[in-house]
Amino acid sequence: VLFPSPFWSGHVAIHPGFDPYTFFLSDFPVDDLARVMFLATGLVGLCATMVARSTLSDSDIRFRFANVMLLSLAGLNGLVLVRDLMGLYVFLEIVSVSSFVLIALERGRAAFEGAFKYFVLSAVATSMILAGLGLLFIVAGNTSFDAVKAAMGATGANPLATAALVLFVAGLAVKAGLVPFHGWLPDAYSSAPPAVSVLLAGIITKATGVYTLIRLVNDVFPKAPHVHMILLVVGLASILVGALAALGQRDLKRMLAYSSISQVGYIVLGLAAGPGLGLAGAIFHLFNHAVFKSLLFVNSAAVEKQSGTRDMDALGGISSRMPVTGTTSVMALLSTAGIPPFSGFWSKLLIIIGVWKAGHPGFASAAVLASVVTLAYFLSMQRRVFFGKLAPSCEGLKEADGWNLAPALLLAAVTLGLGLCAPWLYQTFLAFLLPTGSFL
Amino acid sequence: VTLATLILLGLIVFTALWTVQTTLLRAAIGLAFVSVVLTLLMFEMGAPLAAVFELSVCAGLITVIFVSTISLTKRQKPVEAAASLRSHARRFRPAVIFAAAAALPLLLGKPLLDGISHPPPALETVREVLWGARRMDLLGQLVMIFVGVFGVVILFREEKKKEAGR
Known about the structure:
The complex is a heterodimer. Helices cover 75% and strands 0% of the residues of chain A. Chain A has helices at residues 5-11, 20-25, 32-55, 59-81, 85-103, 109-140, 145-155, 159-176, 184-191, 194-219, 225-247, 252-272, 277-307, 323-337, 343-357, 361-385, 402-420, 422-429. In chain A, helix 9 (184-191) crosses helix 12, helix 10 (194-219) runs parallel beside helix 12 (252-272) and helix 15 runs antiparallel to helix 16. In chain B, helix 1 (3-19) runs antiparallel to helix 2. The chains are: A mainly alpha, B mainly alpha. The A-B interface holds A 27, 64, 67-68, 71, 74-75, 78, 81-82, 84, 86-87, 90-91, 93-94, 97-98, 100-101, 104-105, 107, 127, 131, 135, 138-142, 155, 158-160, 163 and B 98, 102, 104-105, 108, 112-113, 115-116, 118-119, 134-137, 139-141, 143-144, 146-148, 150-151, 154-155, 159.
């Protein structure tokens, strides 16, 4: 799935005339965006599994986690493959229902509360998406992407089509945890088991909310100017609200959750800039975010397991006891803040240039300033948790086990490698999005 | 006023009635009843295939899952039930906004549909619809039901076992 058809035809010769690509994937048009999502899903799923091996001590719960995670991954892959709104809705629901179960996996009041909040807001999102779907079916007479796109072009500014569009986009904004629909996200992330947090922050909200938004805005509603303006405003609001809220957190996972809201805002801002640099940056930041946010949650799992707390004020100086976790955490925060040579730098740069070139210098400038706030809250986290004088309660602390360090090192290598190889990656995987004569 | 309009009005009234129920079991059975009325509406509007699925899946299978799940829960304590009852009406305030938003396209009515017309769908067999046009959805729905049942078993059955053990 990851490699395009010519690769298979050239390298795999099982039987003359047998093309594995056509045999397995003839029904599903797999494009470069889908490949990026498959890669992100596989990578985050692998890392979450390793974290679960380390942090879920009860083998029964581990068994259940593995089963529900596989169902969730099936939903995510189906979501990426379908080219029909009804199919999209069905796979969104598979991911949502498996997410409720995963969040509440260890039971307990906080877990059920987080799952219930996600459940309620997800039901609201589902109602909006389903209502939008119904209206689009009236307008287009079909739910395939191509039919809806053709109908949207033909009916122009039909209020029914506009209402459908608004409902659909608002539903996806809830799933993505964008401001003002972000209320469920910090509770869900912080109350879930560590491995589930990696999965939720790394891929689930990105695929259900952000990927679907990118797919629909580009493939189904490309000529809707109001949507782009709404996305610009929502994107910037998410960047600012997420970053400012992250500054005031004491709980490590809640801080990372608010940071997630802020970073998703950047992706939406890039999407709003339209095809070209902005969109290329948005897709690259989607992948980067899956990598560096998973890394941060893997590290928070290691810290929580070793120290028994997520309260940043109760920790301090643990980098001397957990050097690998501390170092990979610095790499992840620098990538999130958009500092070279890490991959986050390139994607943020593209987004900001794309937004500027699309005629929104104010939005681009605000996004740059928010990046400084990102650096501020992450440096504050790093100082409180990893640097400075060792807290007395952390005297006996040891480095995390191999099941936690392996995904951390893998993800750190990916974020550094992507940063160093970024121009080559653009030419290879995202060339279809870049305008001719682009500086890359 | 056609028969379909009358059934639709009845459907809305019944849905509202069952939604505000305080007992989960009654609400689940009420949902099955609403599904039966919706089945009648689908038959009346010339969609027998959709009606059969509504009856078998929503009124049948989904109700079985709901009732099974409810049987795995325990009753609220009298104090909790009294507190829950006090806040019951408040919980449905947002529903008024959703109902108004949903009714808006209906109130605006026919002008919105002007200029929108589609050719009647070609007659297709059940096999063609399920395995041809909606193959991916069907697979997704099977996974969906499996996730739901598996989730119920994981979250409720084990808890019940533990309590029985205690």
